[in-house]
Amino acid sequence: MKLKTTAGLALASFGLTVGAMAADIRIDGFPDYDSQLNRILPAFEASTGHKVSQLMNNHGDHHNKIATNLATGQGAGDVVLIDVGFVGSFVDQGGFVDLTDRFAPHASNYAEYAVLQGRGGDGRQYAVPVDLGPGVIYYRRDYMEDMGYNLDEVMASWDSYIAYGKELKEKHGVLLIGNAAAIAAAYINFNVEPGNGLYFDADGNSMVTSPRFVRAFELAKQVRDAGLDGNISEWTEDWYEGFKNGTFATQMSGAWLLGHLQNWMAPDTAGMWGVSHLPGGIYGSWGGSFLGIPRQSSNPDAAWALIEHMISADNQLAGFQNIAAFPAHTGTYSDSSFDEPIDFLRGQQARQMFAEIAENVTPVAPHRGDLIAQSLVIQTALEQVLNDGVPVMTALRTAEAQIRRRVR
Amino acid sequence: MSRNLDVSPEVSDVVRAADTAKADNIKRLWNKSTPYWFVSPYLIIFGVFGVFPIFFMVFLSFHHWNPVAGLGSMRWVGLENYELALTDPMLWQAMWNTLVMALLSGIPQHLVALPMAYLLVSLGAHARHWLTTAYFLPYITSTIAVSMIFYIMYSPQSGLINHMLRALADGTLTSWAFGWINNFMPIAWLQENSLIRYSVSFVVFWKYVGFNIVIYTAGLATIPNDLYEAAKIDGASSFQRFRYIALPLMRPFIFFAVTLTIIGNMNLFEEPFVLTRGLQTAATNGMSISNYLYRVAWEWLDMGSAAAISWILFLVIGTFTGLYFWLFGRKGLEGN
């Protein structure tokens, strides 16, 4: 009898545990999103009764893990964070819940280009933007303004920007940029013709031998040949040192680089930096993240509730404060915090500029072959042009032939 | 009505005997199978993680499959993946890189390890134990950790190697001989396509030379001292004793160590992967076949093509090992 009672109690508690676990959901992501989640999850848990756990992996491992989870049909969180670079390859493959109807009432509040990026080839919404990367260029004010250069003149065009680099090198011994490859990437990312994707046109044809790519490669080559860059790989110690020591004068990136610079990369250089529109005043996006619900989620309703919580205006603003994740919710741009001067940028009211860029970016259609094209063009062809002296058109034609074979 | 009522006592005995025999059979079978039940966890795990993936990979290599779309999205493409791989210039480039790095790191490993082991054995037991341990340490250290340390040391601006070269070039006593180095500074060991194979090969050499020293030290310990002593009496020098006694008797060990090097070096993955930051720098010349395989599978999400490439890699390794066995097998295994 005692045994039966014990077994009964064990079974009951197991049932209760399973019941409680069933209500739980998990979000999979990459740092520094945990900093943001730790602050905004208690309110969500208190209001909905759902317990949310987190599984954070570094950027690369996280995306590999999602691919494995989707392939095997298990192991993915109920909500997953997806970097914009992976959206094209991920959302169009059928592994995510169709969020079109759920997101429809909110869609008009979010940057249009980002909303479109989260759609699959069938026009349905599979991923929802949670933060954006308005494309900007950070520059050292001490080299630019303190040495008597005019920002507007320097940024008037790519040619004037490179001319500034030549003067910097000759007169002051300062490099223009850490790695010329960033110039090519910026030109490719920020000059997309309306209706096209980064590497493919609306019909899925490769565009990598088009004038946009040729010009991008030529600009980078011009900078490398003139010795205006340090061939310093991004996200390495040498790159961080470059920011700290002022080895180079400019860096293109998403607005989000500000958070990294002031928090850990070069906090001692506060007041030396400024931020500007890209050369030629072009608009573009550099980075950004999305949220999706894998179809294997056992609790998609709770998962959607979490997404709604994360993309609400208040939490978008919190993300901006906590981890400098620029809000995808355009309704937040009228908040007073957007007028605050930023000490790190010598008091510049940069957030208004970020918002203006976010609202003017031309939509870029994602394509499932984006990752393949990106590694064949930016990592292989550009490297051959910059380091091995391969002619631009030869490298691009080879890349295009490869893309045509590989994107099946 | 029960059927038993119609059955005579004799028949009933036969049925009972048959039942007993059946029970005995089951018992005997159960007893016989007991050992297999004990080893079944291993068999199951080996089947699931060892045998099944091999057959699944054969199946996969004839399909086009993006894992993100789930298992149901597999599409039969026949030999297309093999055709795609064999006509892929990047695969051939990766093959060439792998071969060059295998030779650049593999040959010096043995050329250094063999005399070094001989030297260690000559030094006597005490020194030998300490030094063998020291040389073996890189082998048991995590490849990722080793590669990351070398990544930092190779750094063009802040790396130890360039710092040392700069110090030599600028030093008052050394500048006359090393001053020319300044013309090439900062040397981008891992960013320049022309240098990366050498940089990766050095790391591989450094990591595995100790392993070969241990194999050769063990091999040398099997050679009877009498042979050396007899040669000594005949007036053989230390080099002659190494050349004419140690080297021929070491053939089976050399054969074993070189076979392991061929297989290991053709599978090179971690060192180039970490040193090129996941193929972001100098990928053209630093990418091994395994790295390319990873890129096709996990960056481009084309599992079928990756499976075909891995079978091609398997055949290449098989061919090289087979060739080595054919050329040196008989001599290598002499006396065994």
From TrEMBL, chain A:
It is found in: Periplasm. SUPFAM superfamilies: Periplasmic binding protein-like II (SSF53850). Gene3D superfamilies: Periplasmic binding protein-like II. Residues 1-22 form the signal peptide. Its main location: periplasm. GO terms for cellular component: periplasmic space. Keywords: Signal. InterPro entries: Bact_solute-bd_prot1 (IPR050490), SBP (IPR006059). Pfam families: SBP_bac_8. Belongs to the bacterial solute-binding protein 1 family. This is Extracellular solute-binding protein. It comes from Salinispirillum sp. LH 10-3-1. The lineage of its organism: Bacteria, Pseudomonadati, Pseudomonadota, Gammaproteobacteria, Oceanospirillales.
From TrEMBL, chain B:
It is found in: Cell membrane. It comes from the Bacteria. One of its GO terms (biological process) is transmembrane transport. It is a multi-pass membrane protein. One of its GO terms (cellular component) is plasma membrane. Its main location: membrane. The chain crosses the membrane at residues 36-62, 99-121, 133-154, 205-223, 244-263, 308-328. InterPro entries: ABC_transporter_permease, MetI-like, MetI-like_sf. Residues 95-324 form the ABC transmembrane type-1 domain. Gene3D superfamilies: MetI-like (1.10.3720.10). Keywords: Cell membrane, Membrane, Transmembrane, Transmembrane helix, Transport. Belongs to the binding-protein-dependent transport system permease family. This is Sugar ABC transporter permease. It comes from Salinispirillum sp. LH 10-3-1.
